[in-house]
Design brief:
The radius of gyration is 33 Å and the shape is rod-shaped. The protein has 2 domains: 55 residues; 94 residues, Ribonuclease H-like superfamily/Ribonuclease H (Nucleotidyltransferase, domain 5), CATH 3.30.420.10. It is built from 6 helices and 4 strands, in the order H-H-H-H-H-E-E-E-H-E. By secondary structure, the chain is of the alpha+beta class. This is Transposase. It holds the Pfam family HTH_21. One of its GO terms (molecular function) is nucleic acid binding. Involved in the transposition of the insertion sequence.
Length: 176
């Protein structure tokens, strides 16, 4: 047996429902406008099938959306600007973590403290390498230069004391 199209000698394109390109473009634009351009080409393809019963290749929908400027708007990732590094110094400690007298060599760093799953606090501490004792610390909800300066202002540094840090942005700012 032959197919119905061959029996009455009608080509395949003539007995199928034709998809006019202009109609598809209008439907895509309508869907994009209705949804405020938040959906991408894959979702628009699914909506064409679900709402209008049209089966259109995802690559064709992408091409139409791209050519007509209808691609979804992507959000840019916000990167926190913690400050520009101003003054980098040489590593004077050179991995010599031994100290012969108190308050000679001090190290400082910031540590993240997580509580209740997703909440975060910052701990700024200064440790004396003579006896590995924390001699100053501050806890804050934000990591900025004032937070680190509060820790530093808790103690009086003797003349010639070496304070070593990882030279992050808060430690290389002009205020520090």
């Amino acid at each position: 047996m032959t197919s119905n199209g061959r029996l009455i000698t009608v080509g395949k394109k003539e007995y199928e429902k034709p998809q006019k390109k202009d109609d598809v473009i209008e439907l895509i634009e309508q869907l994009c406008m209705e949804n405020h351009f938040i959906y991408g080409y894959r979702t628009i393809t699914r909506l064409l099938k679900k709402i209008h019963g049209l089966t259109v290749n995802t690559k064709k929908v992408y091409r139409i959306m791209k050519n007509n400027g209808r691609l979804c708007r992507t959000r840019t990732k916000k990167v926190p600007n913690l400050g520009k590094a101003y003054d980098l110094t040489d590593n004077k400690l050179s991995r010599d973590f031994h100290s012969d007298k108190p308050m000679e060599k001090l190290v400082t760093d910031i540590t993240y403290l997580y509580y209740f799953g997703n909440c975060k606090l910052y701990l700024s501490s200064i440790m004396d390498l003579y006896n590995r004792e924390m001699i100053a610390y501050t806890i804050s909800e934000c990591q900025d230069t004032d937070f680190v300066l509060d820790t530093l202002n808790q103690l009086k540094l003797p003349k010639g004391a070496l304070l070593h840090s990882d030279q992050g942005s808060v430690y290389t700012s002009m205020a520090y």
